[in-house]
Amino acid sequence: MLGALATAILILSTSNPFFGPSFAASARDDVTLGAEVAKQVEQQFGLYSSPEANLYVRQLGERLAAIANDPRWKFTFQIVD
Predict the structure, then answer these.
(1) Distances (CA, A) of 6 to 10, 13, 23, 37, 80
(2) Closest Cα to residue 56, out of 81, 26, 78?
(3) Torsion sign over Cα 60, 15, 31, 28
(4) Which residue of 11, 26, 37, 80 has the smallest Cβ count within 10 Å?
(5) 79 with 53: CB under 8 angstroms?
(6) Regions in the chain scoring below 70 on pLDDT
(7) What is the model's pLDDT at position 45?
(8) Which pTM does this prediction carry?
(9) Domain boundaries, the chain
(10) Which residues 6+ apart lie within 8 Å of 80 measured at CB?
């Protein structure tokens, strides 16, 4: 389970300059790939259903995303079960 989640995070992180431009053709490609991977992870593992925990993770994620300050990206935050 952790390996699949780490793989999803790595795939979603390929737009990072550390990985170089060959990993991500465009922001649109990254968004499409991210949505596909998120759906696969959700289908394979399911999502954790605790309103309090989900609220905490969403608020924390939104604070981190605000630091990115890049309008190309729409972030969502969920807990994998």
Answers:
(1) 6, 10, 17, 11, 12
(2) 78
(3) positive
(4) 26
(5) yes
(6) 1-25
(7) 92
(8) 0.60
(9) 2-68
(10) 1, 5, 41, 42, 45, 46, 47, 48
